[in-house]
Write a structure and sequence with these properties.
Elements lengths: L4 H19 L3 H18 L8 H19 L14 H9 L5 H16 L5 H10 L4 H8 L3 H25 L1
Helix pairs in contact: 1-2, 1-3, 1-6, 2-3, 3-7, 4-5, 5-8, 6-8, 7-8
């Protein structure tokens, strides 16, 4: 028995929006991508295997983010103009650790570090660390081999650690 569309929309809308928000500069663009993914999910829900719904949703979201970026004449590498990583930084800001002022400063440094990641590293980090997708789901969504996803995630984490290393000492 297929799940109700309302349940699917509630489950995936936040994930889609967060991914699109990380990837695009404008809140409105992220909302547009979210709406379009949900429309496509509604149209195709009967033909998607329930076990592959998350992968399907993230692949469609990623493709629409790319399309949106192209429409905006973003000729440079996708996301190079900087993305809003407020959601990721909020995770840091709410975690235990330094005083609130220190967390805010750490959040700013984290935003800069994530913004500095090139594609596909940024998408993989967002899908894994923020969205909580399994490696296999990310591989299917990105249409890449599982081993490549693991290597790219390892490299992205290393780059983030290197970027943050001096900043954490100062906080």
């Amino acid at each position: 028995m297929a799940r109700e569309f309302r349940d699917l929309a509630e489950e995936y809308a936040g994930k889609i929006y967060t991914f699109a928000r990380y990837s695009l500069r404008h809140k409105e663009d992220a909302e547009d991508v979210t709406q379009e993914v949900l429309i496509r999910l509604w149209k195709h829900q009967g033909s998607i295997e329930p076990a592959r719904t998350a992968t399907w949703v993230m692949r469609v979201a990623r493709n629409l983010v790319i399309d949106q970026s192209r429409r905006r004449q973003a000729r440079a590498a996708l996301f190079a103009q900087g993305a809003d990583v407020v959601e990721l930084a909020a995770h840091v800001a709410s975690s235990p650790g330094p005083d609130p002022a220190g967390r805010a400063q750490l959040r700013e440094h984290l935003e800069a570090a994530v913004t500095g990641l090139d594609e596909p590293y940024r998408s993989i980090v967002v899908m894994r660390e923020v969205q909580g997708l399994a490696y296999e789901e990310i591989a299917r969504a990105m249409n890449m081999p599982l081993g490549t996803i693991k290597v790219y995630l390892h490299r992205a984490r290393r780059r983030l650690r290197e970027s943050m290393r001096t900043e954490i000492k100062d906080v």
